[in-house]
């Protein structure tokens, strides 16, 4: 899983912050590691250093799943650490929900039904010809009703 951290020009200590963000994301998404190929993290200070204010730190995370559309979450908080942790928790919850739904749709009963059903017209034709051959063989094995023993 690749984790890319981006910051705006108002964020200081980018290198240290980047390492902390990567650790937080890796810990939060550890159980979904096999499904996530990349996580992009965007950190920003919406009011910049000039104005300040409550909940002005924003963290947007986008996770890219194998074979699926990306999932994005955003969290605002008073500090960057809180914003990152909040976004990581939201992303973990979203991934759990999406991957759980996919798992439910791929339960064994559904998979058996899918494999039992022919997928192509060629497979349908094969099944029909096999059925016809079986019928012919059964007819040969049955004694003639007209002939008397």
UniProtKB/TrEMBL annotation:
The record's keywords, sorted A to Z, are: Ribonucleoprotein, Ribosomal protein
Instruction: Extract the ranges annotated as region (Disordered).
Output: 120-149
Q: Which Pfam families match?
A: Ribosomal_S30AE
Bias class Basic and acidic residues marks the residues at 132-149
CC per GO annotation: ribosome
The record's InterPro entries line, in alphabetical order, gives: RHF-like, RHF/RaiA
Q: By what name is this protein known? A: Sigma 54 modulation protein / S30EA ribosomal protein
Organism name: Desulfonatronum thiosulfatophilum
